[in-house]
Input
Amino acid sequence: MFKSVLMAVDGSSRALNAVLQAWELGLFTNESAITLCSVIDEGYLADFPFWNPNEDQRLDFEARVLNTCLDPVRAKLEELGVTSIKTLTVHGDAAKGIVEAGASSELIVMGRRGLNAGKRLFLGSTARRVLALSKTPILIVPDATGKAPIANPRVVVTPIDLDSPWQSTLRMAKTIAEAWNGRIVLSQFIDLNEFISRESAGAFSSRGTKLFLDFKDHQEESFERLQGIVKKAKSEGHNVRGEQLHESIEAGISKHVKQAEASLIVAVCLAYEGAGAVWWRRSVSFRILNNCQIPVLFTKAQ
Output
């Protein structure tokens, strides 16, 4: 599906799992051009205060560690029949290195969590900053230890917020569902508490009745718009349905994905979502990642 893919690898089982799940989802094939990217944080020697290597010793150490990260993934890709594999080592900030390296690729693949910050020679957990900085679509795969592999992926769940840019998300979902000969479920989460908080800055006072009536109007208008999107997609030949769920994403996304028997979530990540930790915790991207155990492919609003 994607002709060029950058895979961020750090020696963890999660990184290898991300590669395997991307393959099982059909997001790359044995004809895709794969770049395996490992990042070396220049500050990693601070973790070894009693070691003062010369340049040759440092380069040899880094090479051996990176081979430990890259070799298992390369071997697995070769086993799958992938022939176009190159490796890339980036020195410096992990997130910036991945974003810059992936700028010319069609997709970036990452595990949800890498090795911890104390092992700074490796990639580390940088998904939030990569999401914020990258203009390339990003597949983020949660740890799947002990879980059965994806079998016959057919359903894409796409949360849609009609107040945010959603067109790029739907385009991506259509492309994937068409390749799978599968189905798209457009999910619209509308929560009364969130609506009240947004409309009244958290003050549910004498405006309570008016706000509730406004919410009912908002529900009906949003559902009508959603059905219009579904009707148009169906007229284009896509297998799609729309669902409005009256709960928050936190409360409903995991349950909804399970009921739909979905293999993948396609969602949009807005640029401001990575601006800081407070924005991130409030963002849709964080709330989806924090409450789902299946891969999420994030597009960027265009």
